[in-house]
Design brief:
By secondary structure, this protein is of the alpha+beta class. The protein is built from 7 helices and 12 strands. Strand 10 and strand 11 (about 245) form a beta hairpin. The chain starts with a helix and ends with a strand. It binds biotin (BTN). This is biotin--[biotin carboxyl-carrier protein] ligase.
């Protein structure tokens, strides 16, 4: 299993100048049969996409805008685990390559000092009801300064450069570490399952122990984040002491 995987992990990186979204480029390659590990990086995205249909601002030369093809031969039900896996891999890489003590907000936003430095978008393609491939889209605000995107950078977002007191980060070095971490954590996951990923996620989390708000069809609700379930969902304890399982969507740290 493990040997089959490592030989199947591609080290091919497509470096592009301007694209609409690296997600679409990676999907095209995946449809043409690109092996897992195949990565697409762009200097600039004109139509970068975030979770929940949001736009992802991707100015030229300032960030890592990257999409990676994954082909897990696993049930569709496991994709939330991959979402967390990607967050752990990028968080490990960011800490190691830049010294910024990033933490993970469920499911996979990276925060530094309470502000967002990275967002991850995992998209799955199905074929006859089975998981065909996944595209892990990773957007890291590396060298943005406040003037690049004032509403965001001075609001809920920040960049690695700002967190390092103005010291810029070598984007290619960081991208290399991100891909290496993704490859090794994914191999560990295929070999040992979700448990090691879950332990690392919990250790890097800035969510557990916090009071959080979330939305349900019944309206806004609050609870204390107490852990992850086996699928990667977040477990909350509400004021009545009931355990609630949040498996998708978004939470707010309060
Ligand atoms: C989010 O936090 O909402 C997820 C943001 C994901 C952004 C990345 S940048 C590379 C890839 N291409 C896209 O269009 N989106 C993802």
């Amino acid at each position: 299993q493990e040997a089959a995987h490592s030989s199947g992990w591609s080290k091919t990186v497509h470096l592009l100048e301007t694209v609409i979204s690296t997600q679409e480029e990676a999907k095209r390659l995946a449809e043409d049969g690109a092996p897992e590990g195949t990565a697409v990086l762009a200097e600039e995205q004109t139509g970068g996409r975030g979770r929940m249909g949001r736009k992802w601002h991707s100015p030229s030369g300032k960030g890592i805008w990257m999409s990676v093809v994954l082909r897990p031969q696993l049930p569709l039900l496991t994709t939330p685990q991959l979402t967390l896996l990607a967050g752990v891999a990028v968080c490990t890489a960011v800490r190691q390559a830049t010294g910024v003590q990033a933490g993970i907000k469920w499911p996979n936003d990276l925060l530094a000092g309470g502000r967002k430095i990275c967002g991850i978008l995992l998209e799955s393609s199905l074929s006859e009801g089975e998981l065909n491939y996944c595209i892990a889209g990773i957007g890291i605000s590396v060298n943005l300064v406040s003037e690049d995107y004032p509403d965001y950078i001075q609001g809920v977002g920040t960049s690695l450069r700002i967190e390092r007191g103005g010291e810029p980060v070598d984007r290619s070095a960081l991208a290399g570490v991100v891909l290496a971490e993704l490859e090794s954590l994914y191999a560990l996951y295929l070999e040992q399952g979700f448990q090691p990923v879950r332990e690392r996620w919990e250790a890097m989390s800035v969510t557990l122990g916090r009071q959080v708000a979330f939305h349900t069809p019944q309206g806004r609700n609050e609870g204390t984040a107490v852990g992850l379930d086996g699928q990667g969902g977040l477990l909350l304890r509400d004021s009545a002491g009931e355990i609630i399982n949040v498996c998708s969507g978004e939470i707010e740290l309060i």
